[in-house]
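Sat 14:20. Reprocessing the chain from the morning session after the first attempt stalled halfway. Input below, unchanged.
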Amino acid sequence: MTTLDAVDRALIHALHIDGRAPFTKIGDVLGVSTQTVARRYRRLRAEASLRVVGLPDPQRAGQAEWMVRLTATPHTAQDLAQALGRRADTAWIKLMSGGTEICVNVHTPAASDHALLLRDIPRTASITAVSAHQLLHRYFGGPTAWLGRANALDAAQVAALTPVHASPGKPLTATDDALMAALQRDGRAGLAELATATGWSAATVARRLADLQAGGTVFFDLEIAPEPLGVTTQALLWMAVAPAGWTGWPGRWRRTRSSRSSPRRRARRTWSRRRFARTRPRCTIT
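Finished this time. Tokens:
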């Protein structure tokens, strides 16, 4: 397993703050050379699966976000998870419960007919149970840092790396599809590469990126294997809580939970599509 030192952890924190920050700027803030930053970045990509990806914030991009839990027969769950992972509307996916349950986070246009939920899943014979929940409010997650990987820099370093946007921002449109597809493959792709992918000029790409980031419509997330950060076990905690008792609780959870918690854990308030007619709103922490 890859062992992280102070420079590695500082680089991970820096890339979470600004996934597209130039290595020169990161080196200046960390007090190391540009060559050291580039070399550590390449090593983390190769050995710790580190990757920067550009993602839309569903709540700002006019998308509905769904948490779907599927129970499948043991010999088909992995193949099914891989097939779901290839879908454009899958944000992330996990195998759980010894490989018999799949948890998938799905982003769909708010006005769509939810093809995955209404047509594709019901037609799959190997699925034995389905539970679909639409996210109403995110308490923690998305652009927010997981505390286990964002605790290496001091306040001055964080401030030096935090992007400053001059414009109020603009929403995503259909013309941004090629740009978003390229950023989801590599959030650190250069302007020339993005210009080739979109057919725009490099200057147009730079302006459009600045507009989308300024309004929070697009953010740059950092993916990394959890094991080098000391996380060897991940758990999904699913809770039903009376709505009146939920206020303020996510903040207390964030302050008291272990720093070794799963990077995928998020506090969510959802309603169940399957049981909406006869149950109160469900509260989940994932």
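Strands lie at 51-56, 63-72, 90-96, 101-109, 127-140, 218-223, 267-272, 282-285.
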